[in-house]
Design goal:
By secondary structure, the protein is an alpha+beta fold. The chain contains five helices and eight strands. Strands 1-2-3-4-5-6-8-7 form an eight-stranded mixed β-sheet, sandwiched between helices. The N terminus is likely disordered.
């Protein structure tokens, strides 16, 4: 589904470092069922890391923020494999009220891990953050999520302890 209010620049094609061609676009309410199916194909551990709690299946209430973003202060993106047209990643950018910073989150379908999809979606989110004029983005990760932490560090994120929760780490990337 394509919303005519979204500009052509908001829909993009990206190729991962492993050669997977992705079509990336904002998520819309009509995507709720497809996103629920997508998150059913994300590993239990990755779903726990994304939502910082264990869920076997996401509820309507958990999916609403992903499919009903305002596309200004919050953007929810989905990436489709260009060959299969299946959702292989979900990514979100939630900006703070003054549009100086934002929080990001990425989930990749289990069978697409290790193919550069997470790497590519981090680049897409960073580009969106810069386009919106943000000065920094953060990701909050479970300390056990070594793969995400290492990936974000490779992409220029700096880790910081979260004093209020020793199980989490805040990774920050600044622009400009």
């Amino acid at each position: 589904m394509t919303d005519p209010t979204i500009t052509a620049a908001a829909r993009q094609t990206e190729t991962t470092r492993a050669g997977v061609c992705l079509n990336v676009r904002p998520a819309f309410p009509a995507d709720e069922t497809a996103l629920a199916d997508f998150f059913d194909r994300v590993s239990d551990e990755d779903r726990r890391f994304r939502f910082l709690s264990a869920h076997r299946h996401l509820t309507h209430e958990q999916l609403v923020p992903l499919v009903d973003a305002d596309h200004e202060s919050t953007e929810s993106l989905i990436a489709f494999d260009a060959d299969t047209h299946e959702i292989v990643a979900s990514a979100m950018l939630a900006c703070d009220k003054d549009m100086a910073g934002g929080e990001i989150a990425v989930s990749v379908r289990s069978d697409y891990r290790g193919k550069g999809v997470g790497w590519t979606m981090l680049d897409v989110l960073a580009g969106e953050a810069q386009r919106r004029g943000l000065k920094r983005v953060v990701a909050i990760e479970d300390r056990e999520n070594h793969a995400a932490i290492e990936l974000e560090r490779e992409k220029g994120f700096v880790p910081h302890a979260m004093d209020d929760d020793p199980h989490l780490v805040l990774l920050e990337k600044t622009f400009g």
